[in-house]
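Input (structure):
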């Protein structure tokens, strides 16, 4: 295909694996790496090549896509990848790194003369698997045509919010969007917990909300997970706890009080301390019970 690219995907968790698979399906040559190799190996069946090291993954690539746990993990991985980097290589940084975490990433990109895109994504397991993520992107105009085939493979919409990746415009928007997602998740979980505590049928609550102006698809998704006791991770609780901390830190740095976000961060942390970190973030429900 005319737009076939050599793409290195570093990080094959819930999101990274789905993104790599969609890149393979759309005809790109994909190499993948993950700290735990077993999480990357299933992608060989989709045509991806499994790399032993980050440097091996990125060597010869047109585009490197990082989709790791946080900024520190992205920095560590790309530092390990430096022997395989070359000037002019494009780096799509899609990890939720936070504003402080983005700075050393941009500095590393500059030091190695990489073309840096701040490009976090919105979505959970299902949209990722369907190639229907929303990409929030900031990066140079003259390289956008090159990255477009990759962004179109992993997402159904790309929202350009800036002409350089260094300013953090896309990361700032991602934090705002995640503040809403996490608030809705905590609100749904608390309403379900309160229903249990007050002896209310939670389905009656959902029926009241259904179709009204306060209805929300996410409410039904997370409520169903709680009712079915199915906490298969679509958006992991540990990741939600990390993102919540990043939101609070960014707000504090700008002198903005985010009382709901701070309470939500504490709630996620409590559920994680209870041992629910590897579950879907709907497991914040358990934070309503016990210490």
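Output (sequence):
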């Amino acid at each position: 295909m005319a737009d076939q690219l050599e793409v290195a995907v570093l990080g094959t968790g819930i999101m990274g694996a789905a993104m790599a698979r969609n890149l393979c399906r759309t005809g790109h040559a994909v190499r993948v790496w993950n700290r735990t190799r077993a999480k990357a190996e299933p992608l060989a069946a989709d045509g991806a090549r499994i790399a032993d090291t980050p440097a091996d993954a990125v060597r010869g690539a047109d585009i490197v896509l990082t989709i790791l746990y946080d900024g520190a993990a992205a920095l560590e991985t790309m530092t390990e990848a430096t022997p395989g980097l070359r000037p002019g290589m494009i780096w799509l940084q899609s990890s939720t790194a936070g504003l402080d975490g983005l700075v050393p990433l941009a500095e590393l990109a500059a030091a190695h003369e990489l073309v840096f895109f701040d490009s976090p994504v919105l979505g959970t397991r299902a949209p990722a698997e369907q190639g229907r993520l929303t990409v929030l992107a900031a990066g140079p105009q003259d390289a956008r045509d090159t990255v477009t085939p990759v962004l179109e493979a992993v997402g159904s919409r790309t929202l350009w919010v800036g002409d350089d990746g260094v300013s953090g415009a896309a990361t700032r928007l991602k934090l705002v969007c995640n503040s809403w997602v996490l608030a809705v998740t905590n609100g749904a979980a608390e309403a379900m917990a309160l229903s249990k505590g007050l002896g209310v049928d939670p389905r009656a609550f959902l029926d009241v909300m259904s179709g009204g102006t306060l209805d929300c698809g996410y409410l039904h998704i997370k409520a169903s997970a709680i009712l079915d006791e199915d906490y298969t991770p679509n958006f992991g609780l540990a990741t939600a706890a990390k993102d919540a901390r990043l939101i609070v830190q960014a707000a504090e740095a700008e002198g903005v009080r985010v009382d709901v976000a701070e309470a939500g961060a504490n709630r996620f942390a409590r559920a994680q301390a209870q041992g629910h970190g590897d579950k879907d973030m709907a497991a914040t429900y358990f934070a309503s019970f016990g210490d």
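Notes: The radius of gyration is 20 Å. The first helix runs from residue 14 to 25.
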